[in-house]
Design a protein that fits this description.
This protein has about 375 residues and is of the alpha/beta class. The strands form two sheets. The protein has a five-stranded mixed beta sheet with strand order 1-2-5-3-4, with helices on both faces. It has a two-stranded parallel sheet with strand order 6-7. α10 runs parallel beside α13.
């Protein structure tokens, strides 16, 4: 049984929204076909004693649960009736995604599959309220997911930002492997980055701020990049940011191709804690240098000290190194660890200063890694 209850237009995402009810058996069958269609959904909540176990008990008692929100990316005829549109959408399960209500859906499937006879004996059908967005764009889906899920603890801030910026990870990145939060794997080479770390860096670039964004700043970031408007998004794309940063990290990798933090270090370079990174990629393929770089290069572009990210790529091949630069970098980060209350923020400040001094053609340490490291360390320590 499927019955339409309302049809509305969502002008923000330019999509018609059909609200309807359907019996639990029909929804459980549909949900089984679409449950894995949305790669950006939260993971299943499986803790015993969770609110979702209570929900399962409520479903057995025919509790009315909040509506479940779906989205269809199918291209539909504009002159068709709502009934015809809904029928077509529900039959095209490959293009249906769950935007809100994943945990409710999992609970419904579980309860129905384990209690079919119970529901078949009911005098009246147990009805599920559902709404579906028609012919919605990818960015519209991401925006609606963000606004529907913000504030729910099972979805981490990083996961929300992955959703927000996911369209930027669809292009070619010259052999770069981008690891999302749901991939559950780690960075293992100079050619791989965690998507969340790249997002940290890109957000710092957009905001000219190396410090982490908090959960209440997400919607401000949406506005900043004009994510769902009909206007152009950020003038400088995520891919441009990644490519420019990568040229710098590859310059270090090329200069120190087999570098591993040594077992023995001279007294003046010894550290108190574990090194920030034992290999080049373990130093540079992290959030702290990415955010520092993002904030630094944004300020340099804003002040017209450099023309843009393309210029960074050209400058990377001209960097001047000393043999102990990586050891000095690790040493300076260790010194900062002992001075800043929030170690990560201190490291981000250091990297911002380092990249700013390194790429400032008007400065005394332009393209000189050693001098830029020294100046960044002294300035960062002065800011404690």
């Amino acid at each position: 049984m499927v019955k339409i209850t309302n049809v509305l237009l969502d002008k923000k995402v330019d999509s018609r929204n059909i609200q309807f009810i359907m019996d639990i058996a029909s929804y459980a069958e549909l949900a089984g076909d679409i449950i894995n269609n949305n790669p950006y959904q939260r993971n299943k909540v499986s803790k015993s004693g969770s609110i979702y176990n209570l929900l399962k008990e409520d479903i057995l008692k025919q509790c009315i649960i909040p509506p479940i929100v779906l989205a269809s990316t199918s291209k539909l005829a504009e002159n068709a009736s709502p009934e015809e549109l809904l029928k077509e959408v529900l039959s095209d399960s490959g293009n249906l995604k769950i935007l809100d209500g994943l945990q409710r859906t999992l609970s419904i499937i579980d309860v129905y599959n384990n209690n079919r006879e119970h529901f078949e004996r009911l005098d009246e059908e147990y009805l599920i309220r559902v709404e579906v967005y028609l012919s919605i764009s990818d960015t519209g889906i991401l925006y609606r997911m963000l606004t529907l899920n913000t504030g729910q603890t099972p979805m981490t801030l990083r996961h929300q930002l992955e959703i927000l910026f996911s369209k930027y990870a669809e292009g070619e990145f010259n052999g770069v492997s981008i690891l999302r939060e749901v991939d559950e794997t780690s960075v293992k080479s100079i050619d791989s980055y965690r998507f969340s770390d790249l997002i940290d860096g890109y957000t710092s670039f957009l905001e000219k701020n190396e410090l982490p964004i908090d959960r209440f700043d997400i919607l401000q970031t949406v506005r900043t990049i004009k994510f769902v408007s009909g206007e152009a998004a950020a003038k400088i794309e995520f891919s441009d940011f990644l490519i420019s940063y990568r040229t710098l990290s590859l310059a270090f990798q090329s200069r120190f191709p087999e570098w591993i933090y040594p077992a023995e270090v001279n007294d003046d370079l010894k550290i108190e804690a574990n090194p920030f990174g034992r290999e080049v990629y373990k130093i540079f393929n992290k959030s702290q240098p990415l955010t520092g770089y993002g904030a630094a290069v944004a300020e340099l572009i804003s002040s017209k000290t450099i023309a843009g990210l393309d210029e960074v790529s050209n400058l990377a091949s001209r960097l001047e190194f000393d043999e102990d630069d990586l050891l000095r970098l690790i040493k300076f980060l260790d010194d900062i660890r002992g001075q800043f209350k929030k170690i990560g923020n201190g490291q981000r400040i250091f990297f911002k200063l380092f990249f700013k001094y390194l790429l400032d053609r008007d400065g005394s340490s332009f393209l000189n890694v050693s001098d830029s490291l020294e100046r960044a360390k002294n300035r960062a320590m002065a800011e404690v």
